[in-house]
Amino acid sequence: MSSIVQIAIELSFWSPVVLFSIGIPSAFFNTIIFVGIKTFRQSPSVYYVIGQSLSDLIVLLILLIENISSISVSTSSMTCKLMLFFSQLTVPCAMSFLCLSAFDRWACTSRSARIRQLSSNNVARRLFPIPFLFWSLIDIPYLIFCDLIPPTFDCYFTNDIFGEIAIYFLAPIFSVLLPLFVLITFSILTYRNIHHHLIRNHLSMWEQQMTRMIIIQTLLSIFCTLPQFIFVIYSIVTLNKRAMRSFYQISIELLINQCTIFIMGINFISSFYIFFLFSPRLRLTTKKYMKNLWNLKNNQIIPVNITQIVRRKTAIQTHQR
């Protein structure tokens, strides 16, 4: 029994380290390549990819910081409030940008010209700050009703009513259930549009590749979110039976919860690797970018003797005459 708890504890410690190590290059390359290359910025989905990458970066950083005892949420009252606030802010933001990408792909592949107008750079620029502003307003109560609770000084809710709302409504609905519903809905609608061969009529080659990348990432996100969705439903259904659980059942549930959190964490590390595997143009551009960057680092400034060059040039001209 204790071995199960020990495995869960080890998993809770090492999973943020693994996710951070794999996810940081993904977020970094997404931001550098999609921001730095002009032709990639022509797709509206690029704005949502950049927003998702920034959110992913903060999510992974928060998960890693929570493992560091010197920067733990229990260090001070302000640290407790800010860590809970940003953790509840960035995860819904990342899922919101993923949902916006799925919406954009449905709009750009639609039969209706009016719906296709929703897939534009102007619309994407206007929608880009909305997830950050919306979730910042929604999560303000975390700054008010969270603090260190004596005598153990654990970071938790100071208001029982808001604690129940946050645990059983805000966190599961906005971070898991609602994004999963939106992703499944727009994936089905986009598939129907593509199935009718509408995508070939008005989309460029890069937009077609972008659509394929977003669809694959959306499908992966659905499969990664489903285990956490099932566990959340199970926790809500068995809420009244919590006092009757044995130590073995609690240990198993703790281990399953850590596994589902790790699987869901794949959402925050996989975007660039999916784009790199399923987009020949992005793969070629990334290789050229890295090659140019490597050549730039290897370039060295060699001192030149101007007098020798002038003498050689004069000798060549004399020989030609």
In helices, the fraction of residues equals: over 70%
| Strand elements, count | 2
CATH class: Mainly Alpha
Strand order in the largest sheet: 1-2
Low-confidence stretches: 300-310
Question: Based on CA inertia axes, which overall geometry fits?
Answer: globular
The CATH superfamily appears as: Rhodopsin 7-helix transmembrane proteins
Report strand %: under 5%
What value does the average pLDDT take? 82
- Biggest sheet statistics: 2 strands, antiparallel
Order of helices and strands: HHHHHHHEEHHHHHHH
Q: Please give the CATH architecture.
A: Up-down Bundle
Number of continuous helical runs? 14
The overall number of domains is: 1
Structural class computed from helices and strand pairing? mainly alpha
Distance between the termini: 95 Å
Features:
mainly alpha, 321 residues, 2 strands, two-stranded antiparallel sheet, Rhopdopsin 7-helix transmembrane proteins, 2% strand, globular
Please, could you describe this protein's structure?
The protein has 321 residues and is mainly alpha-helical. It has a single domain (2-320), classed as Up-down Bundle (Rhopdopsin 7-helix transmembrane proteins), CATH 1.20.1070.10. The chain is 77% helix and 2% strand. It has 14 helices and two strands, in the order αααααααββααααααα. A two-stranded antiparallel ribbon has the order 1-2. The longest helix is centred in the middle third of the chain and has 36 residues, at 160-195. The chain is globular and about 60 Å long. Mean pLDDT is 82; it is low at 300-310.
